[in-house]
Amino acid sequence: MSGRLSPIDTAKFVAAKRACDFVEDGMRVGLGTGSTAAWLVRCLGEMIREDGLRITGVPTSTRTAELARQVGIKVVSLDEAKWLDVTIDGADEFDDELNLIKGGGGALLQEKIVATASDRMVVIADKSKQVQTLGAFPLPVEVVPFGWQTTKALVEETLAALDVLGDSGTLRMNGDSAFVTDEGNYILDLHLNRIGNARQLALVINQIPGIVENGLFIDICDVVVIGHGDGRVEVKDVNTGVTQQDKIDFVDTENLFSDLGE
Ligand code: 5RP
User: Fold this and answer.
1) pLDDT value at position 262?
2) Closest CA to 33 of 124, 118, 127
3) pLDDT tens-digit profile of 138-153?
4) Do 206 and 223 have their domain in common?
5) 163 within some domain
6) For residue 243, is pLDDT > 90?
7) Which ligand 1 atom lies nearest to the CA of residue 36?
8) Residue 3 banded pLDDT, cuts 50, 70, 90
9) How far is C-alpha 257 from the chain's CA centre?
10) In whole angstroms, what is the distance from residue 70 CA to residue 106 CA?
């Protein structure tokens, strides 16, 4: 790819590039899923090729595994790695406490397992993902296909009694068929508009039989790297309370964009 990146791609790219500072030689790294995480995977691939970085990657989806292998990252399963030094992933929303909604790309289950099995989770996102209160983005929930309509009805009934501003769920589709996750499950997108108590919701939803996992990441994320369209980044650490500002200078004709095509 030659020519300039759009502001949104620049924001995603600079967040990913800055997040590479959290990766050191020899680390076991959880690799997220989505368009922002794809930038991270490309940046790590470049560091392997150009700087001789040696890392082991645990991908959170088949898509990410494929890209990671393409760019030269050594890919292993979570069971092989056992525990990770850091996981870097995107998010659909994050709030001031760095609680997240994830799963827009349908990979929330592996993403949550991998992030939880990491010393540190770093989220990379453009500024548009930052919210005061979670819930404008529909909350993805992974459900087993067996009896999913009954599960959906139970979820909606449960939501009616909780601190949310909507209680309808829709089955995520892939064309004319239900979207199927890497684990062979379906996704219900819950249209809640505003989640008053994300911690409570995350716990209650997971009690319903048929629910595998929900896309609320509570107390899992440690750091968020927020990218801006002009190359600025903010790095906010929820544990120390420190926010750093930075600017990433780059030339967008670098070979790390070569897999994007013209
Ligand atoms: C995939 C995810 C993604 O991290 C989330 O949807 C953000 O994606 P993108 O970086 O493309 O905006 O949770 O399941």
Assistant:
1) 35
2) 124
3) 999 999 999 999 999 9
4) no
5) yes
6) yes
7) 10
8) low
9) 21
10) 22
Is any ligand 1 atom within 6 A of the Cβ of residue 36? yes
User: Separation of 35 CA from ligand 1 center, angstroms?
Assistant: 7
For the segment 182-193, the average pLDDT, to the nearest whole number, is 98
* Whether residue 87 is found in the same domain as residue 161: no
Residue 32 Cβ inside 6 Å of ligand 1? The answer reads yes
Report whether residue 140 contacts ligand 1, using a CB cutoff of 6 Å.
no
Decide: 63 in ligand 1 pocket, CB within 6 A: no
If asked whether residues 181 and 208 sit together in one domain, one would say yes
Pocket test for ligand 1, best of 87, 92, 113, 213 (most atoms within 8 A of CB): 92
**DSSP annotation string for 120-150:** EEEEEEEGGGB-SSS-SSPEEEEE-STTHHH
**By CB neighbour count within 10 A (0-12 exposed, 13-18 middle, 19+ buried), where does 230 fall?**
exposed
Residue 72 · residue 43 · CB < 8 Å: no
Binding site membership of 213 for ligand 1 (Cβ less than 6 Å)? no
- On whether residue 51 sits in a domain, the answer given is yes
Please tell me the pTM assigned to this model.
0.95
Q: Which residues are catalytic?
A: 111
Averaged pLDDT of the chain: 95
**pLDDT tens digits, one per residue of 102-131:** 999 999 999 999 999 999 999 999 999 999
* 102 C-alpha to ligand 1 centroid (Å): 6
